[in-house]
Amino acid sequence: MAVNHSSKDARQLEGIITKGIGGFYYVEAGGVMYECRARGALRGGGANRARITPLAGDRCVISVHPDGLASVDRILERRNYLLRPPLANLDVLFIVVSLRDPQPNALIVDRFISLAEYKSIEPVIVITKLDLAGENGFGEIYDKAGFTVIRADYEDESRAFLDEIRGMMKDRISAFAGNTGAGKSTLLNALCPGLDRETGETSKKLGRGRHTTRETELFTLDFGGRIADTPGFSSFDGEFAEFVYKDELADTFREFADYIPRCRFTGCSHTCEKGCEVIAAVERGEISRSRHDSYVALYNEVKDIREWEKGAPRPRR
Questions:
Q1: Which of 124, 173, 125, 132 is nearest to 154 (CA)?
Q2: What is the pLDDT of residue 55?
Q3: How many C-beta neighbours within 10 Å does residue 82 have?
Q4: Phi/psi zone of residue 40: left (φ > 0), alpha (ψ -120 to 50 degrees), beta?
């Protein structure tokens, strides 16, 4: 049914898109959920005036008409957006890594960190299964690089790590990435037990049950903020990730920043050149070799990609 846009009595509201499916967008505005159609060729807000596809997480302006129909009229300026999973305005990405079963994979972790840094999303490392392996030095790699690392120690009766994570989620849009078996569902059940009541079963809705929808959806948290149910982050294989172009990749490794200006040659790739201060810092132990190895692997993946291919989905390998 077409939305009646001619009514002069329509109310305009600002809200946030929580889900889009089948041409309908579900917008939470003023504590009420509205089912909306998109109005014509939507344009972005701020500097981006191009045509735009609405995404979960988008802030928008809607019109609510007297006949009960509603429309998304305008998308407000985005802080960031992801192509896969389709999501806008993500504030923090919690990367859940187990120390055993499965073993941590530094390249996969660093791929997600690089993408988050590129999109101005705060990456947070959450380490699980300390009871099986104990701290093995993996988290120290990211402590040293300047990231927030949270140890999910369930044997600590205070469960202080849960409060720390909730504090970072409050009033923000959050998403969780984690490989199968890394303990993401256990963590989410502990953090957000209310989601069990809202969605039926957290392990299916937020842990990617076999028959769940593939749409990205936002859920409101009891303690404030929203969590994104993101199919593209339910598997930790990286095939959903976008490219970070080679000329910008080094900027997504924050511990390189102090050393890049000291490189002998302009345009240094920081992979193998003599006179590269980043490589020298690795040799001195000031930059983790593991992190640099990941950087080189990611650089080699994208070094031959042309500028017009930037932002394309990562091909399956």
A1: 132
A2: 95
A3: 25
A4: left
Q: Environment class of residue 5 by beta-carbon count within 10 Å: exposed (0-12), middle (13-18) or buried (19+)? A: middle
3-state secondary structure of 139: helix
Provide φ and ψ at 212, rounded to 5°. Answer: -90, 165
Residue type, 225: G
| Segments forming the whole domain that contains residue 278 | 246-309
- Which residue is associated with the tokens 């345009």? 267
92 and 227 in a common domain = yes
CB 48 within 8 A of CB 54: no
Q: What is the C-alpha separation between 224 and 280, in angstroms, rounded?
A: 45
User: Is residue 317 included in any domain, yes or no?
Assistant: no
d(CA 23, CA 303): 38
| pLDDT at res. 200 | 35
Mean pLDDT (10-residue bins), the chain, 317 residues: 56 96 94 91 62 92 91 94 91 94 92 95 95 82 97 90 96 90 88 60 42 72 90 54 87 98 94 96 97 97 74 45
Number of domains in the chain: 3
The CATH number of the domain where 74 resides is what? 2.40.50.140
Closest CA relative to residue 126, chosen from 99, 105, 88: 99
- Tokens read off for 211: 């028959």
What's this model's pTM, rounded to 2 decimal places?
Answer: 0.86
Q: What is the pLDDT of residue 52?
A: 85
Model pLDDT, residue 284: 97
